[in-house]
Amino acid sequence: MSPKQFRHRLAEFIVGHRWLVLAAMALLTAFFAAGVARMDVRTIFSDLFPKNHPFVKVYKDHQNFGNPLTVTLMVRRTDGQDVFQADTMDKVWRISRDIDLAPGVDHDQVLSIATPKARYTVVTPDGIFSNPIMDDHPPTTAEELTEVRHRVNESPGARTFLVSADASSTIINATFIEKRVDYGELFTYVQNLVKRERDAHHQIYVAGFPMMTGWVYAFGSDTKKIFAVTLILMFGVLAFHMRNIAGIVTPMVVSTVSAIWGFGLVGWLAQPVEPLLMVVPLLLIARCFSHCVQATERYYELLHELKDKRRAAQLSLVSLVWPGTLGIFTDVCGLFLVALAPIPAMQRFALFTGFWAVNLVPTSVFLTPVLLSLLPPPQNLEHLLAKGGKGGPVQRGMHALLNRLSTLSQGRPARYTAAVFVVLGVASLWMMSRVQVGNPVEGSNLLRQDSEFNTAVRQINREFPGLMTMEVIFEGKQGRIVRQFDTLQTMQLLQHCLESGPNPPTATLSFADYAPEANRVFNGGNPKWAPIDPDDAAASGAATALMAGTNAKAYLHVTDFEQTNGTVSLWYPNNKQATVDAALEQARRCVAKVGPEHPTFRIRLASGAIALQQSINDTVARYQWYILGALNLVIFIGCSLAYGSTVAGLLLLVPVNLANAFLTAAMAVGGLGLDVNSLPILAIGIGVGIDYGIYLLTRICEEYHLAHRNIGEAIRVALTTCGKAIFFTASLMTIGLAPWYFLSELKFLADMGLLLVVVMLINMVLALLLLPLLVYLVRPKFLDADVSVLSEALVDMHAAKASPPWQLSAGELRT
Predict the structure, then answer these.
(1) What Cα–Cα distance (Å) separates residue 743 from each residue in 228, 290, 730?
(2) Strand pairing report for 468-476 and 70-77
(3) Could you give the 3-state DSSP secondary structure of residue 708?
(4) pTM
(5) Rounded CA gap, 334 and 354, in Å?
(6) At 437, is the secondary structure helix, strand, or coil?
(7) Concatenated DSSP letters for 500-551?
(8) What would the mean pLDDT of 334-363 be, rounded to a whole number?
């Protein structure tokens, strides 16, 4: 069976067995609807990072060091007094114990001046004692408050990391266990705690990854309302444009069915979905909407010619089944190829959205003509098609604009249009080099800079060494390495190298910082005894003195319980990408200087928030080119086979790659960083552009033969017909997405709304201007070939014009 016969028989079967097709789709829709309730939208922290990155491997091997799942609460006096006041001490005491009751907390990793882990050491005639800074109750009298202030000053760790330099602020840290934490529940718990403890004299700031995720959850609850606004606007504009039942109901039903299938598939796969990536399903619904509108517009053209809705529906399916399926194929490829990045959350995302895109074939390609053939034919075809100067002002305006655009792609103006695109292309390539991979701001780029979370990040960074740490791991090969002189000496040398470098951390901490002080106290308190003798016995003695009378868990932030591994913790003032890059460069240089391999231990870079952030950036920077290259290759092969010409594949790739360059340049101008959340949008943007190009190129091929090989006329007619559908759907999406920027408190969603608007507009302009221009300038040979591989509308239109539909036999309809 030839492709021609297959498409005709397929269209005849689909439209001829409409009720059977509807019944089958209704059953499938019911099945997928049952899966919608099973959807699991949540963040899995460890799945956000590339599983094969060395930093991630270090983190998984030593999760007790610098765990990013830490909530930091800063209590700040707002009346000019220091924190050593009875009401503040009482507040810190309560918060420290309340946060220890939070769901999923690691009880061994709660630290403040009110917890037993914060200690000071004293020498008395009766011996050496390491005691908690605060006793078993918060201080209330002037003497008790003075004593707590004295103890803090006697504890270098507390003075540096728990109380600010001006003593106006103090912090409480609580680390959480990944498998036990529910970010939404934890966020609610902490917010209620903060709300209860804030008063006229105290401000409380809260930061940390769990809280950032909680804010995403909180603002994400408004996403449904924003999506509803988008859909209402889109369907409102559609109703204003169409003004008939078929044109309004068909896209609504098809998009709804597609959404149910997509969300139901997510539920049945039983795989959690990252909340931030839920913006993509709306884009897939929009893609379905776009394909449906394209098919509906073509149906109207054929109905106007044939005056038979069943035959018009059948021929619209014959006409668009290949370009529609090919366009969806590119969407599917763009989504599946995101899985090349070895980040589990993105791989799951690629799986379900890729399969979701597959369902656009039965829904938008096949269901659309079935519904159109059953719904009443519109009575305003001349109005919609703007034939003979008829139609509303919007339709006439679109027709006139597209007519004008067609003149820019041919004749003398074509040279000037080409020159403009060359200049813009060169400029965009230059701007692409300036786009930043990673976080360009202090705090989280997912939230607005004036948000409560980012304000807290800035305040804590200003008062303390910083929220962002990097852990340089000392991994033991033999023995209890923190009791060995070589380990302590190497830690000190590494810290000195880092602190004396050009981009020093704001603070460093290791077991080697505690041991000399313990050695001094153990030897009577004379400062000359602080240095440790260069042998393991002295180092072990210092460690023993340090641990005397304390629980070993008090030092889990610098060594594990068995003391076989240790860390050098480095604090940095912010998490901007420039800071991250400088920190890692300095750390690599210093580790190389002290040597990564030693007889009893090795030094591994790195863990902590800085290292994990960089692991994502490294992966995005590397795999964006893999994904882009693979997508170009797949699209080139698919389009070349479909059109029977490699030139066709190349012509279609030029606009979409230029669109990608324009989009990346727009991100650079807008200060948006390329990260794990925006990478899928870039991949989908290519799919959007290629869809437009496929529909338009197919129509140019058809009109080229109808216009007796007049390339200029073929471009003009294609732009005023197929181009009108492209212009309308892109405008529709722009109107629907634009409110995101103003309605969403989640900066990521606002930015993505703006980015998607840019995607739509760029791809629309390039499809309507650049692709026709390339066809005009290249004059590809495949225009003269048999284009029936893509569409039989040419033959059918000739037949329709030659004989009224009621005079055509069934055999003629099939051929």
Answers:
(1) 12, 24, 21
(2) unpaired
(3) coil
(4) 0.82
(5) 8
(6) strand
(7) TSSS--SEEE-HHHHHHHHHHHHTTS-GGG-SPPSSHHHHHHHHHHHHTTS-
(8) 85
